[in-house]
Amino acid sequence: MSKSAKIGLIAIAVFLVLAVIGLAHAQRPPETDETGTAYLRVNINPTNIPPMVNVNPYGTVPRVQITEIPEIRVAASGCANRRNYQTGIGRSISGPMMITYLHLPEQTRVTLADPNGSHSMNLGAAGQITTAIFLQANQRLEFDAEIMYSGCRPE
């Protein structure tokens, strides 16, 4: 056998070995559930012994203390005159106003804007408020959807 034939056979053998190694170590796609979402199997308890958690490691009786907060009384004002009562539908409510009814659609985002900046939050499911919201003259509530509101503007 000639020297070039031996080199050719060695090259083919090396190629086949690399191809087999490549196929043996190829990464498989992740498993998917019935909806096609990929997931990774993880065994968080590889033993037959269930995990134990000691919720009271020092053996002491937990102490619960309730702090009494003084009652805050806010005098409702502004609707002594029925002309101060306002109701409407919109994306923004400007103060001063005592909002007594606010109907929200599903998953509403609200932003309270005032001279100190703005603060946003998501409000959960649709519904109505069960308390009053007091907006000062320099405050504004902004919503990402149309809302229905009513309340009193002060004199």
List the helices and strands and how they pair.
Blueprint: H1 3-24, E1 31-32, E2 38-39, E3 85-94, E4 97-104, E5 108-114, E6 117-123, E7 127-128, E8 133-135, E9 140-152
Summarize the entry for a quick read.
The chain has one helix at residues 3-24; strands at 31-32, 38-39, 85-94, 97-104, 108-114, 117-123, 127-128, 133-135, 140-152. With 155 residues, it is of the alpha+beta class. The protein has a domain at 82-152: Jelly Rolls, CATH 2.60.120.
Explain what the structure shows.
This protein has 155 residues and is of the alpha+beta class. The protein has a domain at 82-152: Jelly Rolls (Sandwich). It is built from one helix and nine strands, in the order H-E-E-E-E-E-E-E-E-E. Strand 5 (108-114) and strand 6 form a beta hairpin. It is elongated, with a radius of gyration of 34 Å. The mean pLDDT is 80.
